[in-house]
Each structure stands twice: as C-alpha cells, then as structure tokens.
Amino acid sequence: MVSCAGFKPKINTKQLMINFLGQYDLTLDSKGRFLFPAGLKRQMPEENSTQFVITIGLNGCLALHPLKNWETKYNEISALDEFDPNVVEFQRKYLRGANFVDLDSAGRINIPKNLMVQAGLEKEIVVASRGKMIEIWDAKTMNKYHEYLDSKDFGQMASAAMAKKTDSSKS
C-alpha cells in the first residue's frame, strides 16, 4: 500500500476478493489431511487466513473457498430464483456438501470423508488455483481431465470464454 507522509488510504477489505495462482502436488495422510501449500498461504491476507469452506466442484474436483470469498459466493447462490427447479437442484447439490474447515496447528486441512468419496480422492492429490477458489483434485482424475482439455483448441476456448465476459459486461 502506498502512503504519503503517513497517510494511508482506507481500503474496504470486505469488498476485496482473494485471488490465487499456483498448482501443488500433495499427499493426503491416512486421516484425509493435507498440508496447505505455503505458496497459497502467502497469497492470503493475515485476517481469516485459516478459515475456508469446502464443497463439491465441477468435473470431479472439490472447491475450497477462503471464508472471505465464500460469503460473496453464498449470497450470489442464495439470491438465485428459488422457484426455478434447475436453480433449486443446483443449490441443493452445491450447498449440501459445504463444510467449514480450518487450518490446524500444523497448517493442514482435513477434508470431510463424504467429500473425499464424492471426488474420488486417493493418496496423491493436486491443489490448483482457479481464480477466487482453490480446486482439490485426485491426481489421476486431474491428469485425465487435462488430457481432455489438451485435446481442445485453447484459442477457441479462450475466445468463447472471453466473449461471454464481454457480453455480460454490456448488460
């Protein structure tokens, strides 16, 4: 933060989202815990840096949200049309598995057993950033998924994704 003669601008940290970069190959212990990567921990602000919400993700992974980011995500999901059957099914599936998790004193996260089973997590896992969240993959599942992604044209993927962003910003 830049300061001038002792003046520090006020920043509303409640509005700032945490964004992540990086991928880490890790191992689950027999209790379903993994050591949270120091590289990701350094990217988090000090306050609430040990609190997360974990839930199912897309394509066979788990989604780990810093508590600060989860509050915004939860509000967005809760504001969806509660009379749309597709929305209701999505909310049920996404929110039913959501659990609060904390880093323990050794810096580990304990993945709930039901989520481990749902994501097919075995011993070798990959923890990968995806913007405002962190994905937790079984290493074999992620490799298969990336083989599928690698078979697609990256330029077309990027173009389609960015076109959606541009379209939604016009409305």
What does this 3D model show about the protein?
By secondary structure, the protein is an alpha+beta fold. It is built from six helices and eight strands. A six-stranded antiparallel β-sheet has the order 1-7-8-4-3-5. A two-stranded antiparallel ribbon has the order 2-6. Strand 7 and strand 8 form a beta hairpin. The longest helix has 17 residues. The protein is globular and about 40 Å long.
Unreliable spans: 1-14
Number of distinct beta strands: 8
Mean model confidence by pLDDT: 85
Label the structural class. alpha+beta
Measure the end-to-end span.
33 Å
Strand order of the largest sheet: 1-7-8-4-3-5
Shape: globular
What is the helix fraction of residues, given as a range?
Answer: 25-40%
Strand content: 15-25%
What is the CA-based Rg, rounded?
18 Å
**Main sheet makeup:** 6 strands, antiparallel
Q: How many alpha or pi helices? A: 6
Q: Could you state the order of secondary-structure elements as H and E?
A: EEHEEHHEEHEEHH
